[in-house]
Structure formats: C-alpha cells, structure tokens
Design a protein that fits this description.
This protein has 233 residues and is mainly α. It is built from six helices and two strands; from the N terminus they run αααααββα. It is 75% helix and 2% strand. This is Gustatory receptor. It comes from Araneus ventricosus (Orbweaver spider).
C-alpha cells in the first residue's frame, strides 16, 4: 500500500460538495487564525528589539560624557533597562519558541514543493506554498536578527564601559557595581533556553533543514503519479 500524504487522501475521498467546502472553509479559517497572530507577533517583536537596541546604543554614547558623580543614576538607568528586558523574556520568549516551530513547519512545506511536486494539483498551489515558505523565512530571519542585535549592543556597551572606566585614575563603588552587572550579558532568548545570536540563526536554519530532509526520507513517496497529469472519470 502506497504511503500517501493526508492532502492527497483528502482529494481522493468521495465527499458531498457541501462537506468538502466546509472542510476547505475550516482549513482556511484555521490558517488565518494561526498566520495572522504569528505574523503580527513577529512584526511586533522585531520592532521591540530594534527599539531596545537603539536605547542601548544611546546609553552607550552617554557613558563617555557622564561625570563620576552621576554613575549612581547611570547604574539605576541600566538596571531599569535590564528589568525591561527581563519582562520581555518572561512574557514573550515562549512566543519566540512558537514562531520557531511555525517557521519549521513552513520550511517543511516549502521543501515539499521541491522534493515532491507531484503532490500538488496545479502550479498555483506550488507557488502559494513557495510564497508562504519565503515570507515565513524572511519574517523569522527578521525576528532572530533583531534579537541578535540586542545581544551585540549589550556587548558593545560592556566593551565601551570597561574602556571608559579603565582610563580613570580611581574607580568608585558605583562604577565597580556597574561593571560587575555588565558582565552578565544583556540578551533575549528562545523560551529562556537559548540566547538569540547570529550563530543561533544559522544553527536553527541548518537544523530545521536537516530534520526536514530526515522526515521526508522517512515518508518518501513511491509510485505516486503526478496528480496534474492524472485523469479522473
């Protein structure tokens, strides 16, 4: 018995027109219910990380002009930034994880177009899945890249602070506390599991691609005719 994927089985079922259209409607609504919130979150998270990066950059510039007597206020401002990042982690990091899973699914469907074009009944279907794959990949790249910029801005801040403080003949207690807090990297994570860096982007894309090939090899289609050229009575 040939191992046929679910969508091919669905097209071969003899269903009344009303039931078939209801299934199509339910499928479309479920896709909208998943895609719209996910894409909205990705756009929101990307903008949020970009604004956070700009805030850290401005904070880094202010370090060079702050007098020694103002380091107490500088320390409180930096603690406020870290508190804000912690709140982002508590409330949004789990959705970054779901966005990663969503991107993995879209990548798998996109690879299906390349590896198994016989599963699609028309060129329009292939193009729609390909567009979904490209749009999801670009959105995911934007999300992870903006998250990695926060990490890089935190590293630049740490380097700049050490450079400024090292030039001073004496270091007060606020400056010491400030440097000690900076040693803890400022970064956003995926569900508090992995920090989002540039290496994370390449690692996740490569891992997802590898597992997509692995799953496809497990469920390789054999002997399935091209549906676009098949004739039905």
């Amino acid at each position: 018995m040939v191992d046929i994927r679910m969508k091919i089985v669905l097209f071969k079922l003899s269903l009344p027109d009303l039931v078939l259209w209801l299934l199509v409607l339910i499928f479309c609504l479920s896709q909208l219910a998943i895609m719209l919130p996910m894409n909205t979150f990705i756009a929101y998270y990307t903008i949020l990380c970009r604004q956070l990066q700009l805030c850290i950059r401005q904070f880094t510039k202010n370090i060079t002009v702050v007098p020694d007597t103002k380091y107490g206020k500088l320390l409180r401002d930096y603690i406020s930034i870290r508190t804000f990042v912690s709140k982002i982690e508590d409330e949004l990091s789990v959705f970054v994880f779901t966005a990663s899973l969503y991107n993995a699914c879209s990548m798998y469907f996109g690879m299906t177009v390349i590896l198994h074009p016989e599963e699609f009944m028309s060129t329009i279907q292939s193009l729609s899945v390909g567009c979904l794959f490209i749009s999801c990949s670009v959105a995911y790249m934007g999300l992870t890249l903006s998250g990695s910029l926060v990490h890089e801005a935190g590293i630049d801040l740490c380097v700049k602070a050490n450079e400024v403080v090292s030039r001073k003949p004496e270091v007060n207690s606020f400056q010491q506390r400030f440097l000690s807090i900076l040693e803890k990297n400022l970064q956003v994570t995926v569900w508090k599991i992995l920090p989002i860096t540039r290496s994370f982007i390449l690692a996740t894309m490569g891992t997802v691609f590898t597992y997509c090939l692995l799953l496809d090899n497990i469920r390789t289609l054999k002997g399935v005719a091209d549906i676009r050229n098949a004739s039905y009575v």
